Amino acid sequence: MDITVFCSAADLDDRYTAPARKFAALLGERGHTLVWGGSQAGLMGVLADGVKAAGGRLVGISVELLAHKAYQGADELVTTRDLAERKAALLARADAVVVLAGGLGTLDELTEVLELKKHGLHAKPVVVLDSEGFYDGLRSQLQRMDAEGFLPLPLDELALFAEDPATALADLEAAAATAG
């Protein structure tokens, strides 16, 4: 599968880099292609290095604004004009989406993917790897939206939350098999 991963380009401590490394190794070992923001910086670089080391394929979708941080070892590197075009390209190339720890950009990417899925504009599995409870607050908010009728689909049809890399990939593969 081509798996788009949204995550931070910041340098983070081991609480977030260790799960990213493990997820990257699993992704590469299982023969999946990483489609990601194309950066060598921070968690993005950790993820790309891990997938490459495990024999996986890398498709980077960078943006002109950040071209100076592009990962030079990608099998394919696409540069888009702006962030909106990059988000669209990342989703278009995805068979499935995984979200790792990240900041405002990652949150923006996740909410857009969920909004598009809510409207039936894609049916790709979305899994949030909730390392160290990073997304507990978001999960709680989404559960409240679900319980109070703000979501037209049940939350577990929009996104799954996984506590560890192996569960995240297993959930993603199972959801993709069911959807395909």
Explain how this protein is built.
This protein has one domain: 3-Layer(aba) Sandwich (Rossmann fold). The chain is 47% helix and 18% strand. It has helices at 14-29, 42-53, 83-92, 104-118, 136-147, 155-158, 165-179; strands at 2-6, 33-36, 57-63, 76-80, 96-99, 126-129, 160-162. It has a 7-stranded parallel beta sheet, with helices on both faces. α1 (14-29) packs across α7. The longest helix has 16 residues, at 14-29. It is globular, with a radius of gyration of 15 Å.
Quick recap:
It contains seven helices and seven strands, in the order βαβαββαβαβααβα. With 180 residues, the protein is α/β, with parallel strands linked by helices.
